[in-house]
Every structure is written in structure tokens, then in C-alpha cells.
Amino acid sequence: MLYLSVGRPGLSQPAVNCVNSLGRGRFIETTLSLRCIVKKLLPLILIAGVILLVSGIESIGLRMLDAHPRAASPASPDGTPAVLVGAGDIADCHEIEGAKATAALLANIPGTIFAAGDTGCPDGTVENFTQCYDPTWGRFKDRTRPAPGNHEYHTKGALPYFQYFGAAAGEPGKAYYSYELGGWHIISLDSDCSDIGGCGAGSREEQWLRQDLASHPSKCTVAYWHHPLFSSGQHGNSFEMRAFWQDLYHAGATIVINGHDHDYERFAPQDPDGHLDRAKGIREFVAGTGGRHRRHFGAIIPNSEVHDADSFGVLKLTLYPDHYTWQFIPAPPATFNDSGEGTCHGSS
Question: What is the pTM of this model?
């Protein structure tokens, strides 16, 4: 039984025994005063107060963070920029070590992979793809968006190419398509003009390109295919590509990537006639460095800013909403590298 004894005001109270004790088999009751209860509960009250205080501070802090959230980039749902990485001139069954070396680079680089032609060589056969491309770059087929090169067409209609890549390669006989990547419009084209009925103005592919650009106005656009309009390499300029360039230039495209020449070359922004144009020009990269035998340059042509013919490697583009960075990543033991940044100038 518990008795509460409240002292009369102004009178001193005796010392309070707050402990119940047992003695000689009978229960000894000790009267507890209100002061005793307070004495017992005070530590618990203090602990509860501290917990409430800390919780309040955390709540205020979270509200302050919510009031000034970090702006997320529209490049991807989690705010990180998109990555487009790759090369052309990749897996040759006569010399597979280069493709193995560049595939090892891709294993450590997340993002979408472009393959800018001459993927399974020397002849684009089923065996070239299954025995040489597949064990190297084929490890990343689920994130690869290819373009065909001239060696794919060594086999009639490039059919093994279409069979290997499936829907990612476009339709047989129509190996051009586009997609969106982190707010950028990406276009893959087929530059094997003699095999597809031409690439000039008014050709089926050029008409498709104009319609695609009109349907997808974008501040930032990348296009890639195999044969470069501008090149200091052994194959040189492929003038049949000028109609593609004209359409891309008038639409405000930012970057063109090619292969075909087995080297790396970066150009300053220029117009379809090769005139320097830092305001609206397209920056071209030749990245024929995927693994096939390397070739040396001829005479260096105007607006070529960087060139290397001694390294296998991949070109990595990091795509932001209104600008990009580039980085050439060499396969060991090569040490050449190239990096920089540029801005978009298309309409959105």
C-alpha cells in the first residue's frame, strides 16, 4: 500500500526514505512523498527532454535543407550526366589483342556505348561476330548502339551485322536510327553509300535525317557513323558525307564522331565546307581506335587540333544539359590522352 504525504506549507519535512524494505517476514511500508516521486522520475524526465531537443533540431535542419534543395540535372533521374563512350574499327579476327585491350577499358566505364563501324572484321561474317567481336566488345552488347562500316558490307547486305545486334542496329536495309540520351539527341547513320542507294541530298537516308532533326529539335545533338567528312588519315576526306553535315549544321548539331581511319583526330568546330566556325560549327572526332591495326597520318588538314596514330583507346563524352566534356582514354601501355569541353548551340 502506497501513501502520499504532502507536507503542510511552512513546516519542515522529515527526510524521506524512498526504498521499500522487507523485515522479519512482514511488509514494511514506507511513505513516499510527492518530492520522492519527483526525485525518482527526474532522470527520466531529463533524458526525455534531451531526446525531444535533438529531434527538434534535426527536424529544423531537414526543413532548412528542403527549403533550398540542390537542383537536379535533367540529364538523368538522379542528376548525374549521361555518358556516351566508344570507338570504331574494333574487332579483327586477324589481330584481336587491340579489341581485348579496349574492351577492358569499357568494363570500367558505365554508360551507352557507340560502335562507329567495322565492328566484326575482316568481312562482317557470322564467325567474325561470334568469335571475335562477341568475346570482346560483345560483353557489353546490351548497352551498345552500333553503326555499320564498310567491312560489315563485305558480306551481302551486312546481314550478320543485323542478326548479331538485332533491333539495336535498326532495320535490315535501313541501318540508321536515333535515340535520346540524357537530354541529348543521338543519331546513328549508315555511311556505306554505295551499298544503300546513296547518301547525298535527296537520298532516302538524307531525307530521313532531315525529318528526324525537324522532329527532334534539341539544344545538344551528336551524330556518329563510319566515314569522316574530314580526316588527315590515309583514307582522307569522304565528301559523300557533306549532305549529312549540311543537315546537321543547319539544325545546330554539336558533335560528329567517325572511324574508318585507324587513328584519333580532333577538329575545331567547323562548317560543312571546312571553314572554322566556333559559334555554330560542329566538332568532329575521328576515333578509329577500337583495336584494328593502326595507320599513320598523311598531311594534316586545316582545323585539325589533335592527332595520334599510336594508341588504341576509347572516346568518352560526358553529356550535360548544355555542354559536354570529352576524354580520349588510351589502352595501356599507351599514354596519349586528350580532353576538353565544349558547349551546345542548337535550338531546343
Answer: 0.77
